[in-house]
Fold these 3 entries.
Entry 1:
Amino acid sequence: MVESTDFFMQRLLIGLDVGGTKTAALLADVNGKALAETAVPTYTTTPEALLSTITRAVRAVLAEVRATPRQIECIGMGVPGLVDPATGIVQLAVNLNLQRYPLGPAVSARFKTPTFLENDVRTAAVGAFAYVQQMEPVQSLAYVSIGTGVAAGVILNGRLHRGHNGMAGEIGHMIVEPGGERCNCGQHGCLETIVSGPASVRQLIAAAPEMQTTVRNAGDVYEAAVQGNAAAQAIVQRVGQHLSRAIQWLVMMYDVEKIVIGGGVTRSGDPFMAPIRHELAQLRQHSPLATALLGEEKVHLMPPDYNPGLWGAVRLAVNGNR
Amino acid sequence: MVESTDFFMQRLLIGLDVGGTKTAALLADVNGKALAETAVPTYTTTPEALLSTITRAVRAVLAEVRATPRQIECIGMGVPGLVDPATGIVQLAVNLNLQRYPLGPAVSARFKTPTFLENDVRTAAVGAFAYVQQMEPVQSLAYVSIGTGVAAGVILNGRLHRGHNGMAGEIGHMIVEPGGERCNCGQHGCLETIVSGPASVRQLIAAAPEMQTTVRNAGDVYEAAVQGNAAAQAIVQRVGQHLSRAIQWLVMMYDVEKIVIGGGVTRSGDPFMAPIRHELAQLRQHSPLATALLGEEKVHLMPPDYNPGLWGAVRLAVNGNR
């Protein structure tokens, strides 16, 4: 690989998706072109261990193109928890073992560069927004993340809507089955207790205890459904019904232009989306309102080769705290 | 009544709440002080008849203080339907018998004054926002109107959130009982089919057909519940459960600072609010999340002596289309 001296002067952007298990990094030039991507295991024993994780991820992507930390123009980070983007303080991130920790300033100090952070789902919403805008000039969308947790990031007038307490889009804690399963939040029957990845697994094991050793994640549940397992099919259908309703609610509440769905559970692709599309088609069949607001082009599944969390983090680096 | 010549020079604002049955008008000075209020029956046979209705209402409030149309600085109007505030066009207002009619420009022409119009629930949300701001400096709220229809007007960052199609806040059409009663919108089991005024009446008459002649509106249902009628009590409780959940959803989705409830059905006061407050207290009991986001001070009932629709219309006159 031959590089001109110019390359060593090039300004670079780094997007980080800091997760409880792994931390991914994307290196891009200032025009947003991807140069390198990597992922390292996340260490969460102490804030210092987390900082080392981030440092390792940053050095790894820089090393891929033989760049130096001095070339970094800006860093954007998505963090799973309640964060304050204005100060860079992580108020609470259980999976990162952080509480009231100034992660933004700490990373800034380490690389001597501006750092912007945001909640991970909102960061992914920014990435989803950039993705959709490549196709059409929308101004609003809701990005629904279905994984271990369930939440939405909402873009209105081209900007993130965070809410008064930074809790806007917490659709995983909308109560959908009063008196239902107890949620970590203390409420009963939250959407998350039905449609999250772990919830699908729990439901299948409860219905078919003999599958305890073979079903480890939502992908296994969808796979079992495809293979014809009746219990898995019932769960997949139930999840689809609840998610199509959550989509209907998001649209009636926010009247956003697009709904984009992503997150680990959605990687099953068609088996995941088919029940949702079926329910929405049923709604449209008898309702002019649903036809107008929930058309076929309304809901997009994030393609598996586009990582909205990483691209959103790069956008944070480009836009700063706007 | 002795008036100085100055009075005849005073600039005046008019707020109008144009309803399917009656049209109310509020006259205020430019500082927002109320000077006169009136209501006239609404005629909807033709757009011209509606314009005459509006003219009568305006003349009536002006006459009360012996002012002339030339003193009108600006008119604000709330209209029950889908409107385009930027152009003043009413896209569809079934109860006013209007479709694609430039009501704003028509009223402007008649009184030779700027006229701003907005959907009636959003207008009331603006009025509710002004009301709450007298007490505390909030920047966001959702105003939930429970009457013949059910909808919310949402204020974010001090401004109305209208949505891409002007349909934001249509919570009456959130599906809460899949396969439930058919709604006017064509969907089944919309919130409106359970908690609206007519829905309460229908449910009580279905449960107690002998009450058909005595129960005419939601007030009668709440009155019957207070008097100990078991069927009415069950309906009141069901409405409270659904509304408390709708409030929980609004808060999880939007993370607004306040929820304000108003509209005809809420005039029963305590019997209306008690089941909602009870449900929310139950939620708080076991959930730190609900305690943080749904505290006792979160939900306000609009006092019966404050008309948010009229005051919101006056605010539209003050602020224009902002």
Entry 2:
Amino acid sequence: MNKLYIIKIGGNVLDNPSVLEKFLFDFASIKEPKILIHGGGKIATHIGNQMGIESNYVNGRRITDAATLDLVTMVYGGLVNKQLVAKLQQGNCNAMGVTGADGNLIKATKRPVKEINYGFVGDITPHSVNTALLYFLLKQNTVPVFAPLTHADGMMLNTNADTIASVIAVALSKHFDVRLIFCFEKKGVLRDVNQSESVIRHLHRNLYEELLGKQAFADGILPKLENAYAAIQAGVKEVLIGDASDLIHNTGHETEGTLITI
Amino acid sequence: MNKLYIIKIGGNVLDNPSVLEKFLFDFASIKEPKILIHGGGKIATHIGNQMGIESNYVNGRRITDAATLDLVTMVYGGLVNKQLVAKLQQGNCNAMGVTGADGNLIKATKRPVKEINYGFVGDITPHSVNTALLYFLLKQNTVPVFAPLTHADGMMLNTNADTIASVIAVALSKHFDVRLIFCFEKKGVLRDVNQSESVIRHLHRNLYEELLGKQAFADGILPKLENAYAAIQAGVKEVLIGDASDLIHNTGHETEGTLITI
């Protein structure tokens, strides 16, 4: 099977123009089929403040009310997405900016109201993905660039970018050897959280369980590792956690970040 | 050749929820391949006011400065475009929201600065259109929905929605029998501007020149008719000017609006 890179970037890349520029240059240079998923960054909060839209939290979880939904649809689906696409086009990368609504690429279900009403949030599974159209877009040498938005019942919905990346990776793992790359603020998963160079280069299942038994992982990284193994369990070949500035290495054999495999 | 409908809507449809709802229902029901191009409407001005972005005009022409470009990229490319797409998806129409940057569908040149600096405005011709990708999207039964934005040199650019509709119509006229439909505030081109029911149902070149000689057209309609004949000259089979609420009739044989042909 052909290789496919699915790469997620968040605020720590989007909010730093020089980091973003280097990342987009490196991303455009990847020869294999590839998909980019982006989060939001500070710009949504900034524009929300200008418009007098307040962020609402319940028990520390952000609530997407109607005004916030319009805000993220504008800022993530419009401003951030199209600026990324225009810059990638300049780098001769035939980017195509999409949300889950476009071409019905990801159809969600609105999160049911239980103890908390999260508002306009879309829950998704790998079955939510229009794999046929996505495969066709990749075959046309276009590069899908996903904003973290889905849809259901005539509405746009807010969906976590990490979840979109994982779900697309699983859905396309029947057609490609997928390497799912999460760019975050460290070089990789660290053996010692106080030593930024103590990156675990290759984490396989046995080592993972050994380190898990020793309680060797920092709390913050555990959900990411659990998600990584869930994706691998569901068919994704490799998950990589690393720094956006190491993208060239992390799309090669000798990775700088943490390559997670079965 | 197969029929293709290319339909442009502006503020008078977008700003009226009940008109828009009926239009989208009718649009979704069209069986043939189709493309929608939308303008902006009042929402951009409204959000611009909230954000303290002022509209700049020079000699009555709007100037797209950097803040306005970000505004229209957000509002047209994000909010308006994705809300239309989500609603069409609900109507089982596989809409795919795009700008000219996406898939390099329309590559513009930034308008040169002469007497007036129009700012971030993109000029386009039928050669600007990535006809191959657009044709493939139509073949996949997706329905492109264009926001009035193009790109050049890593930037988004503001481009008139009527111009985008015309340019796409000409570019695709090699592959399809194109009917290009402009929805506006009247039922069609009127013989007597004071009589709203005096619609000219079929305007062919001889009648056009005869009425032109008699100075029978109202000033406002003349540029639209000139553009229509320029599109027909360049290969578009038919141009229709009519009311959005007559869409079902205007995509059939017995049109309510003005059908313009050679």
Entry 3:
Amino acid sequence: MKPVKVGICGLGTVGGGTFNVLSRNAQEIARRAGREVIITQVACRRDNPNCDTSGTAVTRDVFDVARNPEVDIVVELIGGYEVAKELVLEAIKHGKHVVTANKALIAVHGNEIFAAAKAAGVTVSFEAAVAGGIPIIKTLREGLASNRIQWLAGIINGTGNFILTEMRDKGRAFEDVLKEAQALGYAEADPTFDVEGIDAAHKLTILSSIAYGIPLQFDKCFTEGITKIAREDVEYAEELGYRIKHLGISRRYANGIDLRVHPTLIPERNMIAKVDGVLNAVMTCGDAVGTTLSCGRGAGAEPTASSVIADIVDLVRSFDMPAHARVQALAFSELSDYRILPIEEVSSAYYLRMAAVDKAGVLAKIATILSEKGISIEALIQKEPAADATTAPVIMLTQQVQEKTMNEAISAIEALDVIQGKVTRIRVEQLN
Amino acid sequence: MKPVKVGICGLGTVGGGTFNVLSRNAQEIARRAGREVIITQVACRRDNPNCDTSGTAVTRDVFDVARNPEVDIVVELIGGYEVAKELVLEAIKHGKHVVTANKALIAVHGNEIFAAAKAAGVTVSFEAAVAGGIPIIKTLREGLASNRIQWLAGIINGTGNFILTEMRDKGRAFEDVLKEAQALGYAEADPTFDVEGIDAAHKLTILSSIAYGIPLQFDKCFTEGITKIAREDVEYAEELGYRIKHLGISRRYANGIDLRVHPTLIPERNMIAKVDGVLNAVMTCGDAVGTTLSCGRGAGAEPTASSVIADIVDLVRSFDMPAHARVQALAFSELSDYRILPIEEVSSAYYLRMAAVDKAGVLAKIATILSEKGISIEALIQKEPAADATTAPVIMLTQQVQEKTMNEAISAIEALDVIQGKVTRIRVEQLN
């Protein structure tokens, strides 16, 4: 069999990892793929000192790879939106299959890219775009193909999980841990994508499309970051038997699907509550299989390369397959038009924390507001005021209620003269 | 596209589940597979009251299905060795692809079956044979295709895990929990396969072949059950910061691969130590991806059906593929002849428990024997003798040492006149 020729665009962390793993494990990969996979060309702005490219053609222009008639598969690892999109479309135009690790690109421009690929009869693969080395795209598209997926939930941003883990384990403050994460190279200099949940929203958008067979709709994903999580919330959650994790969650309802990224209280006995540090994990619930969990490294050079190369091997197999038989980009041959529910229509249980003036009757006022809205209180902690404080923290867990109703209740509570400042609200999920 | 026609042999728990999920989710499955999948014939000794087979041809002879010219894929769910083997070979002879959930069949007769399938140009798929609904075969064969797998470890028998979990959580004795597991239908009337580790050894044999690309060698798998685990061992393990799990473990060394099923102490902080009840979980370590864990239901009608049908969908895709491009049964186009190490050559850390006569100098004698063998003690618990006892339990964790050396040390310790009865030995793994 003729070897398959790969062109790698971008030789940064993931590009370098892909180059090295493809070189190091060439023999095992060929024994699995049934054909040799060789790197024909590499495009990078600068050399990667960890990669020995002396035997490989190197160009500074990524478009050289997209147009190289020798290349069968273009691997896009340059990141970002604009040039990456242009590059992928150019590769498709030249009849190349594409492998990418670019979640932002797929979440935002995926519909357009998949349409172009379908028209050209090529495949765009993106296992590495979600949860790094965990083959969760494959699991959802193929491993659970017989299931009607009911919901999924994932820790899909390692930086955020590292920060929350440190806050819990060591009682540290958010800002403090963020600085360390940046020093360790986990978080970018501009950490917005990680801590504001944008990166997780990209990944959740992709996972949900595949799970339910719906178009990518990143703009409809509700996104809340972890920047407002206080150390005391982590501690109170613990006192109530919960952990706080930054989750991407989506669920199928009779009237639509929700897509949301936010900090979430999860019972500490739940497996995903125990996924700590930079690890990623995705839980899925299918009607046949029940709940499954996959856990592993969600980022880093070689874990991500592991998924990039798995895609390459799958592509090699599909070369001789008719297009109709190939796995569809978003898992389904025809997509559904389920409505994406606005967060106001989503129901959830809630953790609430507020500062109440230390007076008789305060709790009665709060309880009356909740009761009038039909919201039941599941658990309550009322602390004594600290020595120098005039307010005492009141913490409660509510039963499930629609976000819209909770918003009204919170507004009413905040309007009470015995409540100081804003009410902190964190959603609660059981995930079982 | 023409529908794909499936014949189901066996309509027990898994057969019934497969029949029902294929019927219930027919539309979603067709949207994923790109073709309709229909059940053309069912063979069963007796009807399953949970399945409405009124619209399906039913035969009492499974060989009717294997020979039915209308059937594309034969699904073998009758279990056992002899008839199942005959059935699968007959189906292959008639040019059918086969899907089976039969771990015993694959572990023991897989090499012969795969050779026959290769010669006939058909595929035998067996995702459901290991870890029920968890798509671990697909993960190893495809999702981690770029990795050199270093080791794997799994909780791959739900009954055993249920028993050990109950022993720990409720301080119950082995025999007592086994009776309950039988009453709940988790354990067979003859529980030997579960509690003696034979079922786990079947599954480990299959996983290891796929991980390292070696022929199936069930007869070389070292197997030790959980029947000798005492409640006190569970408690002492806990005191030392460990959990006892019944694991299948295999690892790649410079001079071969080990294959072993035995009770194992694992640090309680390890994710797999937290997998409780009837759940299954498999950890794998690849050189690129690092350690990953997949967890879910390892048995039951619909979780197992989930994997059976995933195999069917994969087969549907591969119909138009040339044989060389298909995923190989044991992942690799050519198998390796790594030596399977006998347990005596395997190194492990150990938990030891012994009953020592309550006299001065006992510990010195034990320590001297271990020291002469070059075995270091990592941790030690010496308890006071119970009120009515003349001996006191001594518990220790050792550093890593070859099994052969540990056997010699244990013999020497048992020969001491201050030691009563046998030394209990449980292997210890860190799995990180």
